[in-house]
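BUG: 3D viewer hangs when loading the predicted structure for this chain

Environment: internal workstation, default settings.
Expected: structure renders.
Actual: progress bar stalls at 90%.

Input used:
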Amino acid sequence: MRCEGWRRTGGAFTLGQVEWKQCEKEAIVMLKVKQGKEETLPACLECWNECKEKKIEILGAEPLIVEG
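Structure tokens produced before the viewer hung:
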């Protein structure tokens, strides 16, 4: 399952237009967050850590089960 994190590049204080790109890594958890509204989304470790760094309210994290 692909991570649902999004990253912004360009725009204020940098050259180029604002561009949003979805993370291409595999998700490791279902992350429940609150940013105005509550959402549960798949996230990779890098995006999960970015949420913590940006002080996004994390309500829960449930590991994804990898079969194989």
